[in-house]
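Worked example (supplementary).
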Amino acid sequence: MPYVNIKITKEGVTSEQKKQLIEGVTNLLRDVLGKNPQTTVVVIDEVDTDNWGIGGEQVTIRRQRGQ
Amino acid sequence: MPYVNIKITKEGVTSEQKKQLIEGVTNLLRDVLGKNPQTTVVVIDEVDTDNWGIGGEQVTIRRQRGQ
Amino acid sequence: MPYVNIKITKEGVTSEQKKQLIEGVTNLLRDVLGKNPQTTVVVIDEVDTDNWGIGGEQVTIRRQRGQ
Amino acid sequence: MPYVNIKITKEGVTSEQKKQLIEGVTNLLRDVLGKNPQTTVVVIDEVDTDNWGIGGEQVTIRRQRGQ
Amino acid sequence: MPYVNIKITKEGVTSEQKKQLIEGVTNLLRDVLGKNPQTTVVVIDEVDTDNWGIGGEQVTIRRQRGQ
Amino acid sequence: MPYVNIKITKEGVTSEQKKQLIEGVTNLLRDVLGKNPQTTVVVIDEVDTDNWGIGGEQVTIRRQRGQ
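After joint prediction of all chains, the assembly is encoded as:
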């Protein structure tokens, strides 16, 4: 019954990529800890770049500077 | 001052149902632990079915299969 | 597959009370949203009163004042 | 590498205010704990007032009553 | 700057397994989304089995029944 | 009613420092968003360095290397 929450910035992640993240994390927990995929919950939160800060700045600002 | 976070898939939950969830959880904490409703915070997060995985799959895919 | 996280201060909550919280929340989600209890995850986090703030103060301090 | 999550109701917070929150929290962690701003992550979640409960009620309802 | 939170029950996970989880998740985000490992944060929360509920029951109880 | 969660590694943070973090964050939300300190919840989670990963490594390992 692991619960995994992945928070990333909302910058065009495709459904296919989300599929790979969910699959990859679920397999990792199965392989490392023997957890049952059927009760492994993975939730992906996509966050606006205005709402994500690093280095004291909004990611929106860093992206404008090419970071 | 309990903080309760309810994460569910975004599949048409009505405002009335959210009202019942908030009321129900707040009353439960009052009845079981004697917590003051006035400082009990309940936050409901609704997550796209593409962003929620179980059994290594996106819920969107499971819904297409009738699960 | 709902995921519910209950954060409360670490102030002697008994195993029986945790049982009631888990049961109560799971039944609430079944009754209000028709969710399957078998895939409803409830996690209770107990937080030291030094680590919980309200009104800009640690709960430890408020408890010493009888609040 | 601190991770700070700020959950607030979605009630018109401006980008400038988000900037100030990110800056303020990052500086606080630098000043109090000596944490490196470059690896301090701050995420702001804005939650619909229908999805936020206090006192067993949705904030939407409380706002209609002027609270 | 992804932030990944893995919540599992506290049932003897070794440091080596935690190492593999951290490495695996970080590589997955690098390979799928091109994220920089140096700013990928992974936090593992281990939760007492009394504090984790599934099917409306504490995991402690399910373990006693061999589940 | 803001809810702020601060996750840091468990490396000897003092009660006084936690007090300053709680006070600082609560004042920041009051000053920037006009939020009422009396209903601002701040929770500090301290995480073992074995359970915190950055750059694909456990912080325990990085600390042994002087990072």
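Two points are worth noting when inspecting this output. Residues 6 and 44 of chain D are 5 Å apart (CA to CA). The mean pLDDT of chain D is 96.
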